[in-house]
Amino acid sequence: MAYYDYTELLAQGAIYNLIIGQRSNGKTFGACRLILEEYLKTGTPSAYIRRLEEQIKPKNIEALFNPHSAWIDEQTQHKYNSVVYRAGGFYLARFELSDKTGRFVKLAQDRTPFCRCYAIATADTTKGQDAGPVAYVVFDEFMTRKYYLVNEFIHYQNLLSSIIRDRQGVRILMLANTVNKYCPYFGEMGLREIADQDQGTIAVYTAGTSETKIAVEYCASDDEQQKKVSSYFCFDNPQLNMISTGAWEIASYRHAPEDTGDYDIIFCFFVVYGGKVAQGDIYMYKGYPIIVFHKKTSELRKIETSLIYMEDNDDGNPLHQISLTVGETRAHKLIRQLIKQNKFFFDTNDTGEYINNWLKFALTNTIVKG
Questions:
Q1: In a domain, 255, yes or no
Q2: Which residues, at least 6 apart from 40, have a Cβ–Cβ distance to it below 8 Å?
Q3: Any idea which of 121-135, 162-176, 216-230, 252-266 has the lowest mean pLDDT?
Q4: Among the four 211, 265, 275, 281, which has the fewest Cβ within 10 Å?
């Protein structure tokens, strides 16, 4: 089975390694192989992370390492030939078919799990539990189009702290399909240019003022995989490009009416999210207010007197808010009302994608981070 090769990405020497690409290009398979290789070579286990507890329950995850069974059998000289999942851990095991019962019988199982599983949603229960050394931490499907947990990045960092402790040399792998071009992790990690990264390239960032390196690979399209799926996902819908080519999945959003420009803008406000800025113009369109969002490419000025929604704020200015659910000025109330009534539009689908991600944050985040 062909699978994603991590060699070039890991050669960048980064602590955080983000792998983003089309579905079924072998990202998870390759990460699982790294975990197994490290354990068989050094005896050091790894960790596997998902967002929700449901995602690490046996019915959803126990088959994760099954594609590697034949390889395990070969590498262990037939000592083990399969993997079992028990109490949040994966263990090497050996099963043989019984001549008497016609069923597979477990003949051996390793005493130490080679990989332990964790959920960010229940990260608080991990505190205080030191499971020992760890080689890789794999966060699978860190991007989603559905929803993120409130303050998810902080919970993720707390979970990493509980797993890694003060150990050095741990490599963190974050895997995702190209389903969310404006994923909040990008802003939190300072990856401001990731949405503009060319497919088939690796970019290396430095986090903040530290020397922590973050390597991001936007995987090249797998031509063979593209041929396999082209017959099934050939329809004229931009969201399907993620499956066939690894292009960013972007939905179709409502564009502003063509004659919007014939009407006056009565107010404008700004959204600062993920390191980018969008502007919302409120038009009195045919006697009724609507919002039209567009990207702002020029510098944001008159900050003190502008209504701004942002990811973090402690300046006390009532015009500056984090959540859409608070703010008592007339403008805040009008914006909330128009959002609730779906009276908002976009200049492009890309702007729609950006604002859609911000709304998920702004409609749930009612507590200032800190």
A1: no
A2: 75, 76
A3: 216-230
A4: 211
What is the rounded average pLDDT of the residues 141-147?
84
Pairing of strands 201-206, 213-218: antiparallel
To which residue do tokens 């797993």 refer? Answer: 163
Single pTM value for the model: 0.70
Do 338 and 191 share a structural domain?
A: no
User: Which pLDDT belongs to residue 237?
Assistant: 47
Exposure of 208 in the CB half-sphere (CA atoms within 13 A): 5
Give the number of domains in the chain: 2
Is residue 224 located within the same domain as residue 144? yes
**Is 181 in contact with 348 (CB distance < 8 Å)?**
no
Residue (of 274, 267, 282) closest to 362 by Cα position: 274
Q: How many alpha carbons fall within 13 Å on the CB side of residue 112?
A: 13
Let me know if residue 140 belongs to a domain: yes
In whole angstroms, what separates CA 149 from the centre of its chain? 11
Q: What distance lies between CA 31 and its chain's CA centroid? A: 16
286: region left, alpha or beta (phi > 0 left; psi from -120 to 50 alpha): left
C-alpha to C-alpha distance for 30 and 60, rounded to whole angstroms: 19
Nearest to 49 by CA among 139, 115, 165, 170: 139
How far, in whole angstroms, is CA 42 from its chain's centroid? 30
**Residue-number span of the structural domain to which 329 is assigned:** 260-362
The percent of residues above 70 in pLDDT, for the chain, comes to 88
Residues whose CB falls within 8 Å of the CB of residue 240, separated by 6 or more in sequence, listed in order:
233
- Name the one residue in this structure whose structure tokens are 């019962």: 101
Other C-beta atoms within 10 Å of 245: how many? 20
> Are the beta carbons of 119 and 51 closer than 8 angstroms?
yes
pLDDT band at 222 (very low <50, low <70, confident <90, very high): low
Look at residues 261, 267, 268, 307 and name the one whose alpha carbon lies nearest to residue 285. 261
227-237 average pLDDT score? 49
Structure tokens at 118: 């964790």
* The dihedral sign for the CA sequence 125, 129, 130, 134: negative
| In the predicted structure, residue 276 carries a pLDDT above the cut 90 | no
